[in-house]
Amino acid sequence: MRRILLDADTGIDDSIALLYALKSKNIHLEGITTCFGNSGAAQSADNCLRLIKLAGCSYEIPVVAGAECSLEGVYASAPAHIHGDNGIGNVVLPESGQKPLEEDAADFIIRRAKELEGELILVTTGRLTNLAKALAKDPHLPRRVKRLVVMGGALDVFGNVSPFAEANIAGDAKAADQVFRAGFPMTLVGLDVTMKTFITRQNLEDLEKYCKEENRPIVEYMKQALSFYFEFHRKSMGLVEASVVHDPLAMLIAEDATLGEYRMIYAGVEYQAPAYEGMIVKEDTIPQDGRQEAIAACIRVDSHKAVRRLFSVF
Ligand code: RIB
Ligand code: CA
Fold it and tell me: Would the CA dihedral through 157, 243, 69, 63 be positive or negative?
């Protein structure tokens, strides 16, 4: 059983990652923290609560709203053309009776890591601001968790917010740099693999036919939200009734690392030179700053297997 804390900027693809985690028999969600990005952190928390309700989850998952801006106090407006005005493609899900926990997100991450005594897997699908704040409060955090899986970055491919940078990393490059250099047992799931993995309208039509009856409302939600997302992919990439798969891939890899192949790297993130902000900077030699762990950067993935598995839980 993977015991996962998700940190998300819930977002259409974040929402699919969350629904997968809620439905996979191999995952127990230990909590959710949210961050600004695809929507505000408070909106993201509300989205998560509604999605948990939609999934009819049998156990309570604490949800904590986190950073509303970067470490430097910057908040770029949410990309409504990608994720809609509410982050989940303008789909209005029924409200949840559950309220977000009134706890600082960084404190919550540290507390859950301590409580789970080395068993916690952190999965981030947004900016790394909450995690950087947690690190500042507890520099031992990297040794308290089993693994950190980050959706973000572009190594050997172009970025999606600049030629050099991916949105989650560029959105708070300073926070990302701190996390990359902290010595977490870390897996990076970046555009190198997420841009080569696709979901299509056909997948959704198949799902409609073969899904479990209890999951029909989830499938209906995914159809609506992904229609919005497909439209963005049509306009920006020329994809027809399809999208790439960012955040769900990170969740799938957190559950089963054998879906990917990895290159071990030591790296930081550029955060000072504006033109290169968010670029991952690889280091050629083992750093002398006491870092224990190299980062496992995912360079190839079995996309067919990943997508099959993604939809198999519904
Ligand atoms: O670059 C893709 C990432 O940015 C995904 O996590 C998406 O949800 C947005 O946060
Ligand atoms: Ca995201």
Answer: negative
- All residues at 6 or more sequence positions from 180 whose CB lies less than 8 Å from its CB, including other chains: 186, 267, 268, 269, 280, 295
How do the domains of the chain map onto residue ranges?
2-312
What token pair was written down for 241?
Answer: 């009734």
Q: Say how far apart CA 98 and CA 100 lie, in whole Å.
A: 7
- Domain at 2-312: CATH code: 3.90.245.10
| Distance, C-alpha 306 to centroid of its chain | 16
pLDDT(77) > 90: no
- Ligand 1 pocket (Cβ < 6 Å) reads 9, 11, 13-14, 37-38, 125-126, 151, 160, 166-168, 246-247
End-to-end CA distance of the chain: 18
- Which residues participate in catalysis according to the annotation? 9, 246
**Separation of CA 146 and ligand 1 centre (Å):** 23
Quick one: which ligand is closest to 169's CA?
A: 1
What does the pLDDT read at residue 226?
98
pLDDT tens, 124-170?
999 999 999 999 999 999 999 999 999 999 999 999 999 999 999 99
pTM over 0.90, yes/no: yes
Q: How far apart are CA 197 and CA 259, in angstroms?
A: 12
Type of residue at 312: S
DSSP 141: H
